[in-house]
Write a structure and sequence with these properties.
The protein is built from 9 helices and 16 strands. The protein is of the alpha/beta class. A hairpin with a 2-residue loop joins β8 and β9. The radius of gyration is 22 Å and the shape is globular.
Length: 396
Protein backbone atom coordinates (compact mmCIF):
# COMPACT_ATOMS: atom_id res chain seq x y z
CA UNK A 1 0.00 0.00 0.00
CA UNK A 2 1.44 3.35 -1.06
CA UNK A 3 1.73 6.54 0.98
CA UNK A 4 -1.34 8.72 0.57
CA UNK A 5 -0.67 11.70 -1.68
CA UNK A 6 -2.67 14.89 -2.01
CA UNK A 7 -3.76 14.53 -5.63
CA UNK A 8 -3.76 11.84 -8.29
CA UNK A 9 -4.39 13.02 -11.86
CA UNK A 10 -5.31 10.33 -14.37
CA UNK A 11 -4.32 11.13 -17.95
CA UNK A 12 -1.62 13.42 -19.32
CA UNK A 13 -3.56 15.12 -22.08
CA UNK A 14 -4.59 18.78 -22.14
CA UNK A 15 -6.64 18.59 -18.94
CA UNK A 16 -4.29 16.42 -16.91
CA UNK A 17 -1.14 18.32 -17.84
CA UNK A 18 -2.82 21.71 -17.34
CA UNK A 19 -4.02 20.82 -13.84
CA UNK A 20 -0.67 19.31 -12.88
CA UNK A 21 1.21 22.38 -14.10
CA UNK A 22 -1.08 24.78 -12.23
CA UNK A 23 -0.74 22.84 -8.96
CA UNK A 24 3.02 22.38 -9.19
CA UNK A 25 3.84 25.97 -10.11
CA UNK A 26 1.47 27.61 -7.60
CA UNK A 27 2.79 30.13 -5.09
CA UNK A 28 3.25 28.65 -1.64
CA UNK A 29 3.27 24.99 -0.69
CA UNK A 30 2.50 22.89 -3.72
CA UNK A 31 0.43 19.76 -3.04
CA UNK A 32 1.97 16.35 -3.67
CA UNK A 33 0.73 15.28 -7.10
CA UNK A 34 0.93 11.89 -8.84
CA UNK A 35 0.33 12.13 -12.60
CA UNK A 36 -0.64 8.81 -14.21
CA UNK A 37 -0.10 8.61 -17.96
CA UNK A 38 -1.30 5.77 -20.17
CA UNK A 39 1.42 3.61 -21.74
CA UNK A 40 2.18 3.96 -25.44
CA UNK A 41 -0.55 2.22 -27.41
CA UNK A 42 -4.30 2.48 -27.96
CA UNK A 43 -5.04 4.05 -24.56
CA UNK A 44 -2.81 7.05 -25.28
CA UNK A 45 -4.46 9.64 -27.55
CA UNK A 46 -2.72 10.33 -30.86
CA UNK A 47 -1.15 13.75 -31.55
CA UNK A 48 -3.75 16.43 -32.10
CA UNK A 49 -4.19 20.16 -32.58
CA UNK A 50 -6.05 22.49 -30.22
CA UNK A 51 -7.34 25.93 -31.22
CA UNK A 52 -8.69 28.72 -29.03
CA UNK A 53 -8.72 32.48 -28.72
CA UNK A 54 -7.62 34.69 -25.87
CA UNK A 55 -6.85 38.28 -25.03
CA UNK A 56 -3.17 39.22 -24.99
CA UNK A 57 -0.27 36.99 -23.95
CA UNK A 58 -1.22 33.56 -22.67
CA UNK A 59 0.10 31.03 -20.17
CA UNK A 60 1.18 28.63 -22.88
CA UNK A 61 2.39 30.97 -25.62
CA UNK A 62 5.72 29.09 -25.70
CA UNK A 63 3.81 26.12 -27.13
CA UNK A 64 1.80 28.06 -29.74
CA UNK A 65 2.55 26.94 -33.30
CA UNK A 66 0.87 29.92 -34.96
CA UNK A 67 -1.66 32.65 -34.20
CA UNK A 68 -3.81 35.02 -36.24
CA UNK A 69 -5.69 38.28 -35.83
CA UNK A 70 -8.03 37.86 -38.82
CA UNK A 71 -10.73 35.26 -39.44
CA UNK A 72 -12.35 34.47 -42.77
CA UNK A 73 -15.56 32.56 -43.50
CA UNK A 74 -16.81 31.69 -46.99
CA UNK A 75 -20.37 30.74 -47.86
CA UNK A 76 -21.34 27.99 -50.27
CA UNK A 77 -21.49 30.62 -53.03
CA UNK A 78 -17.97 31.85 -52.25
CA UNK A 79 -19.12 35.02 -50.51
CA UNK A 80 -16.29 36.12 -48.20
CA UNK A 81 -16.47 37.41 -44.63
CA UNK A 82 -13.07 38.76 -43.56
CA UNK A 83 -12.76 40.49 -40.20
CA UNK A 84 -10.20 41.27 -37.53
CA UNK A 85 -10.47 39.67 -34.11
CA UNK A 86 -10.01 42.89 -32.16
CA UNK A 87 -8.31 42.36 -28.81
CA UNK A 88 -8.50 38.59 -29.19
CA UNK A 89 -6.00 36.39 -30.96
CA UNK A 90 -6.79 32.98 -32.46
CA UNK A 91 -4.10 30.47 -31.46
CA UNK A 92 -3.11 26.93 -32.39
CA UNK A 93 -1.18 24.48 -30.20
CA UNK A 94 -0.08 21.02 -31.28
CA UNK A 95 -0.28 18.47 -28.47
CA UNK A 96 3.33 17.37 -28.97
CA UNK A 97 4.52 20.97 -28.49
CA UNK A 98 2.29 21.37 -25.43
CA UNK A 99 3.77 18.25 -23.84
CA UNK A 100 7.32 19.35 -24.65
CA UNK A 101 6.72 22.83 -23.20
CA UNK A 102 5.23 21.56 -19.94
CA UNK A 103 7.68 18.69 -19.39
CA UNK A 104 10.53 20.84 -17.98
CA UNK A 105 8.11 22.92 -15.91
CA UNK A 106 6.80 19.76 -14.24
CA UNK A 107 10.22 18.13 -13.91
CA UNK A 108 11.48 21.12 -11.92
CA UNK A 109 9.07 20.44 -9.06
CA UNK A 110 9.75 17.70 -6.53
CA UNK A 111 6.06 17.77 -5.54
CA UNK A 112 5.17 15.91 -8.78
CA UNK A 113 5.70 12.21 -9.47
CA UNK A 114 4.91 10.71 -12.87
CA UNK A 115 3.77 7.11 -13.33
CA UNK A 116 3.14 5.28 -16.59
CA UNK A 117 0.54 2.57 -16.45
CA UNK A 118 -3.03 1.44 -17.08
CA UNK A 119 -5.61 2.42 -14.49
CA UNK A 120 -7.63 -0.63 -13.47
CA UNK A 121 -9.94 0.81 -10.81
CA UNK A 122 -10.70 4.00 -8.90
CA UNK A 123 -12.30 3.30 -5.53
CA UNK A 124 -13.44 5.60 -2.75
CA UNK A 125 -12.17 4.93 0.77
CA UNK A 126 -12.56 6.54 4.18
CA UNK A 127 -9.82 9.12 3.62
CA UNK A 128 -10.28 9.89 -0.08
CA UNK A 129 -9.85 7.53 -3.00
CA UNK A 130 -7.50 4.85 -4.26
CA UNK A 131 -6.28 4.42 -7.85
CA UNK A 132 -5.05 0.96 -8.82
CA UNK A 133 -2.55 1.01 -11.69
CA UNK A 134 -0.95 -1.77 -13.72
CA UNK A 135 2.52 -0.44 -14.51
CA UNK A 136 4.48 -1.03 -17.70
CA UNK A 137 6.50 -3.83 -16.07
CA UNK A 138 3.34 -5.66 -14.97
CA UNK A 139 3.29 -4.59 -11.31
CA UNK A 140 -0.01 -3.71 -9.66
CA UNK A 141 0.38 -0.47 -7.72
CA UNK A 142 -2.13 1.13 -5.35
CA UNK A 143 -2.10 4.96 -5.21
CA UNK A 144 -4.14 6.40 -2.32
CA UNK A 145 -4.98 10.11 -2.54
CA UNK A 146 -7.14 12.75 -0.92
CA UNK A 147 -8.44 13.84 -4.34
CA UNK A 148 -8.55 12.13 -7.74
CA UNK A 149 -9.09 13.94 -11.06
CA UNK A 150 -9.85 11.61 -13.98
CA UNK A 151 -9.49 12.88 -17.56
CA UNK A 152 -9.80 9.55 -19.37
CA UNK A 153 -12.32 9.46 -22.27
CA UNK A 154 -15.67 8.01 -21.28
CA UNK A 155 -16.50 4.53 -22.47
CA UNK A 156 -19.91 5.77 -23.61
CA UNK A 157 -21.59 9.16 -23.67
CA UNK A 158 -24.52 10.04 -21.40
CA UNK A 159 -27.97 9.90 -23.03
CA UNK A 160 -28.99 13.08 -24.80
CA UNK A 161 -31.82 14.61 -26.78
CA UNK A 162 -29.43 15.37 -29.65
CA UNK A 163 -25.94 14.12 -30.41
CA UNK A 164 -24.01 14.94 -33.56
CA UNK A 165 -20.41 14.02 -34.24
CA UNK A 166 -17.77 16.51 -35.31
CA UNK A 167 -15.47 14.27 -37.32
CA UNK A 168 -12.48 15.46 -39.28
CA UNK A 169 -9.25 14.62 -41.04
CA UNK A 170 -6.48 17.13 -41.65
CA UNK A 171 -3.34 17.33 -43.72
CA UNK A 172 -0.29 19.41 -42.81
CA UNK A 173 0.69 20.48 -46.31
CA UNK A 174 3.62 22.24 -47.96
CA UNK A 175 3.48 23.94 -51.35
CA UNK A 176 6.26 24.90 -53.74
CA UNK A 177 5.08 28.50 -54.03
CA UNK A 178 3.41 30.96 -51.61
CA UNK A 179 -0.23 29.91 -51.32
CA UNK A 180 -1.45 30.95 -47.85
CA UNK A 181 -1.92 34.19 -45.92
CA UNK A 182 -0.07 33.63 -42.61
CA UNK A 183 -2.03 36.44 -40.94
CA UNK A 184 -5.53 35.01 -41.49
CA UNK A 185 -7.26 31.74 -40.66
CA UNK A 186 -10.04 30.37 -42.87
CA UNK A 187 -12.29 29.19 -40.05
CA UNK A 188 -15.13 27.82 -42.15
CA UNK A 189 -15.10 27.44 -45.92
CA UNK A 190 -18.40 25.92 -47.04
CA UNK A 191 -17.39 25.52 -50.69
CA UNK A 192 -17.62 21.76 -50.34
CA UNK A 193 -20.59 19.37 -50.80
CA UNK A 194 -22.98 19.45 -47.85
CA UNK A 195 -24.35 16.28 -46.17
CA UNK A 196 -28.09 15.58 -45.92
CA UNK A 197 -28.00 16.20 -42.16
CA UNK A 198 -25.63 18.63 -40.47
CA UNK A 199 -22.95 20.55 -42.34
CA UNK A 200 -19.48 20.25 -43.84
CA UNK A 201 -16.65 22.73 -44.22
CA UNK A 202 -12.90 22.96 -44.63
CA UNK A 203 -10.66 25.17 -42.56
CA UNK A 204 -7.14 26.38 -43.25
CA UNK A 205 -4.66 27.25 -40.49
CA UNK A 206 -1.57 28.72 -42.17
CA UNK A 207 1.75 28.35 -40.39
CA UNK A 208 3.59 30.18 -43.18
CA UNK A 209 3.14 31.24 -46.78
CA UNK A 210 3.84 27.70 -47.98
CA UNK A 211 2.61 25.60 -45.05
CA UNK A 212 -0.78 25.05 -43.45
CA UNK A 213 -3.06 22.60 -41.70
CA UNK A 214 -5.98 21.98 -44.04
CA UNK A 215 -8.81 20.07 -42.39
CA UNK A 216 -12.09 18.70 -43.74
CA UNK A 217 -14.82 18.59 -41.08
CA UNK A 218 -18.41 17.41 -40.84
CA UNK A 219 -21.06 17.88 -38.16
CA UNK A 220 -23.29 14.86 -38.83
CA UNK A 221 -24.66 11.70 -37.18
CA UNK A 222 -21.96 9.28 -38.38
CA UNK A 223 -18.32 9.22 -39.41
CA UNK A 224 -17.13 8.58 -42.98
CA UNK A 225 -14.76 5.99 -44.43
CA UNK A 226 -11.22 7.39 -44.31
CA UNK A 227 -10.99 7.60 -48.10
CA UNK A 228 -13.88 10.07 -48.28
CA UNK A 229 -12.05 12.61 -46.13
CA UNK A 230 -8.97 12.33 -48.34
CA UNK A 231 -11.11 12.74 -51.47
CA UNK A 232 -12.68 15.89 -50.00
CA UNK A 233 -9.28 17.31 -49.06
CA UNK A 234 -7.82 16.68 -52.52
CA UNK A 235 -10.86 18.28 -54.16
CA UNK A 236 -10.62 21.33 -51.93
CA UNK A 237 -6.89 21.87 -52.46
CA UNK A 238 -7.00 21.32 -56.20
CA UNK A 239 -10.46 22.46 -57.31
CA UNK A 240 -11.30 25.19 -54.78
CA UNK A 241 -7.90 26.64 -53.90
CA UNK A 242 -6.41 25.87 -57.32
CA UNK A 243 -3.19 24.44 -55.92
CA UNK A 244 -1.08 22.01 -57.85
CA UNK A 245 0.90 19.27 -56.19
CA UNK A 246 1.21 19.60 -52.44
CA UNK A 247 3.32 17.55 -50.07
CA UNK A 248 1.47 16.05 -47.12
CA UNK A 249 3.92 16.15 -44.21
CA UNK A 250 1.62 14.85 -41.45
CA UNK A 251 -1.99 13.92 -40.84
CA UNK A 252 -4.44 14.11 -37.97
CA UNK A 253 -8.00 12.92 -37.49
CA UNK A 254 -10.54 12.72 -34.75
CA UNK A 255 -14.15 12.60 -33.60
CA UNK A 256 -15.63 15.09 -31.11
CA UNK A 257 -19.15 14.47 -29.75
CA UNK A 258 -21.44 17.49 -29.99
CA UNK A 259 -24.17 16.70 -27.50
CA UNK A 260 -26.68 18.30 -25.15
CA UNK A 261 -26.01 15.51 -22.63
CA UNK A 262 -25.19 16.43 -19.06
CA UNK A 263 -21.78 15.17 -17.94
CA UNK A 264 -21.18 14.17 -14.34
CA UNK A 265 -18.22 16.01 -12.86
CA UNK A 266 -18.31 14.60 -9.35
CA UNK A 267 -18.39 10.80 -9.39
CA UNK A 268 -17.51 10.23 -5.71
CA UNK A 269 -16.77 12.18 -2.54
CA UNK A 270 -13.17 12.60 -3.65
CA UNK A 271 -13.25 11.71 -7.36
CA UNK A 272 -13.95 14.08 -10.23
CA UNK A 273 -13.94 14.04 -14.02
CA UNK A 274 -12.16 16.83 -15.87
CA UNK A 275 -11.61 17.86 -19.47
CA UNK A 276 -13.90 16.47 -22.18
CA UNK A 277 -14.94 13.68 -19.78
CA UNK A 278 -16.21 16.40 -17.44
CA UNK A 279 -18.18 18.25 -20.12
CA UNK A 280 -15.55 20.81 -21.13
CA UNK A 281 -16.34 20.51 -24.85
CA UNK A 282 -18.70 23.27 -26.03
CA UNK A 283 -21.66 21.38 -27.55
CA UNK A 284 -22.26 23.58 -30.59
CA UNK A 285 -18.63 24.09 -31.64
CA UNK A 286 -16.43 21.32 -30.27
CA UNK A 287 -13.93 23.80 -28.77
CA UNK A 288 -12.46 22.45 -25.53
CA UNK A 289 -8.99 23.85 -24.74
CA UNK A 290 -10.05 27.26 -23.38
CA UNK A 291 -12.71 25.68 -21.18
CA UNK A 292 -10.12 23.25 -19.80
CA UNK A 293 -7.98 26.22 -18.77
CA UNK A 294 -10.86 27.85 -16.89
CA UNK A 295 -11.80 24.53 -15.32
CA UNK A 296 -8.31 23.60 -14.12
CA UNK A 297 -7.64 27.14 -12.87
CA UNK A 298 -10.79 27.00 -10.72
CA UNK A 299 -9.87 23.55 -9.37
CA UNK A 300 -6.33 24.65 -8.50
CA UNK A 301 -7.54 27.84 -6.78
CA UNK A 302 -10.04 25.93 -4.65
CA UNK A 303 -7.64 23.14 -3.75
CA UNK A 304 -4.81 25.48 -2.78
CA UNK A 305 -7.24 27.46 -0.61
CA UNK A 306 -8.29 24.31 1.23
CA UNK A 307 -11.80 24.25 -0.26
CA UNK A 308 -13.67 21.40 -1.94
CA UNK A 309 -12.12 21.35 -5.44
CA UNK A 310 -15.20 20.16 -7.33
CA UNK A 311 -14.97 21.43 -10.95
CA UNK A 312 -17.47 24.23 -11.65
CA UNK A 313 -20.00 23.86 -14.49
CA UNK A 314 -17.92 24.26 -17.66
CA UNK A 315 -20.65 26.22 -19.49
CA UNK A 316 -23.49 28.44 -18.33
CA UNK A 317 -27.07 27.20 -18.35
CA UNK A 318 -27.89 29.79 -20.98
CA UNK A 319 -25.07 28.62 -23.26
CA UNK A 320 -26.12 24.99 -22.85
CA UNK A 321 -29.75 25.81 -23.64
CA UNK A 322 -28.84 27.77 -26.78
CA UNK A 323 -26.51 25.00 -27.96
CA UNK A 324 -29.19 22.35 -27.42
CA UNK A 325 -31.63 24.29 -29.60
CA UNK A 326 -29.05 24.75 -32.36
CA UNK A 327 -28.04 21.07 -32.32
CA UNK A 328 -31.67 19.99 -32.63
CA UNK A 329 -32.19 22.44 -35.49
CA UNK A 330 -29.15 21.12 -37.35
CA UNK A 331 -30.03 17.48 -36.72
CA UNK A 332 -33.64 17.92 -37.87
CA UNK A 333 -32.56 19.72 -41.05
CA UNK A 334 -34.67 22.72 -40.10
CA UNK A 335 -31.54 24.89 -39.95
CA UNK A 336 -29.19 25.06 -42.93
CA UNK A 337 -25.85 24.90 -41.11
CA UNK A 338 -23.75 26.53 -43.82
CA UNK A 339 -26.19 29.40 -44.23
CA UNK A 340 -26.59 29.78 -40.46
CA UNK A 341 -22.89 30.19 -39.70
CA UNK A 342 -22.20 32.34 -42.78
CA UNK A 343 -25.02 34.70 -41.79
CA UNK A 344 -23.87 34.84 -38.18
CA UNK A 345 -20.27 35.71 -39.06
CA UNK A 346 -21.36 38.29 -41.62
CA UNK A 347 -23.72 40.15 -39.28
CA UNK A 348 -22.12 40.00 -35.83
CA UNK A 349 -18.85 41.80 -35.01
CA UNK A 350 -16.10 39.17 -34.94
CA UNK A 351 -14.79 39.82 -31.45
CA UNK A 352 -18.30 39.72 -29.97
CA UNK A 353 -19.07 36.49 -31.80
CA UNK A 354 -15.90 34.84 -30.53
CA UNK A 355 -16.73 35.90 -26.98
CA UNK A 356 -20.23 34.47 -27.50
CA UNK A 357 -18.81 31.15 -28.65
CA UNK A 358 -16.66 31.17 -25.50
CA UNK A 359 -19.65 31.89 -23.24
CA UNK A 360 -18.29 35.32 -22.36
CA UNK A 361 -21.15 37.58 -23.46
CA UNK A 362 -23.89 39.30 -21.45
CA UNK A 363 -27.60 38.55 -21.91
CA UNK A 364 -28.23 41.63 -24.06
CA UNK A 365 -25.36 40.60 -26.37
CA UNK A 366 -26.77 37.08 -26.67
CA UNK A 367 -30.15 38.53 -27.59
CA UNK A 368 -28.63 40.75 -30.28
CA UNK A 369 -26.82 37.73 -31.73
CA UNK A 370 -30.07 35.73 -31.64
CA UNK A 371 -31.82 38.41 -33.69
CA UNK A 372 -29.19 37.88 -36.41
CA UNK A 373 -30.03 34.16 -36.53
CA UNK A 374 -32.98 32.43 -38.28
CA UNK A 375 -35.47 33.19 -35.51
CA UNK A 376 -38.46 31.09 -36.63
CA UNK A 377 -36.58 27.78 -37.12
CA UNK A 378 -34.78 28.28 -33.81
CA UNK A 379 -38.03 29.00 -31.97
CA UNK A 380 -39.64 25.89 -33.44
CA UNK A 381 -36.66 23.83 -32.36
CA UNK A 382 -36.83 25.34 -28.87
CA UNK A 383 -40.53 24.46 -28.56
CA UNK A 384 -39.97 20.88 -29.71
CA UNK A 385 -36.88 20.19 -27.64
CA UNK A 386 -38.42 19.50 -24.18
CA UNK A 387 -40.63 16.75 -25.65
CA UNK A 388 -37.72 14.88 -27.20
CA UNK A 389 -36.74 11.81 -25.18
CA UNK A 390 -33.23 11.19 -23.92
CA UNK A 391 -31.60 8.62 -26.19
CA UNK A 392 -28.32 6.70 -26.11
CA UNK A 393 -25.59 8.54 -27.97
CA UNK A 394 -24.24 7.05 -31.23
CA UNK A 395 -20.94 5.26 -31.07
CA UNK A 396 -18.20 7.22 -32.92
Amino acid sequence: MGVRTDVVIIGAGAAGLSLAERLCTATGRAPAVRLVDAPAGPLRPPPRTWCFWERGPGRYDDAVTASWNRIRVRGTDGRLVDAGTGALRYKMIRSTDFEATLAPRLAAHASLTRTEGTVETVEEDADGARVVVRTADGRRESLPARWVFDSRPLGSLPPARTTLLQHFRGWFVRTDRPAFDPHAVDLMDFRTPQPDRGLAFTYVLPTGERTALVEYTQFSPAVLPTGEYDTALRAYLHDVLGLGDVRVEAREEGVIPMTDARFARRVGRSTFRIGAAGGATRPATGYTFATIQRQTAAIATALLAGRDPAPPPPHSKRSMAMDAVLLHGLDSGRIDGAAFFTRLFSRVPMERLLRFLDGDTALHEDLSIGLNSPVVPLLRSAVELPARPLRPAPTP
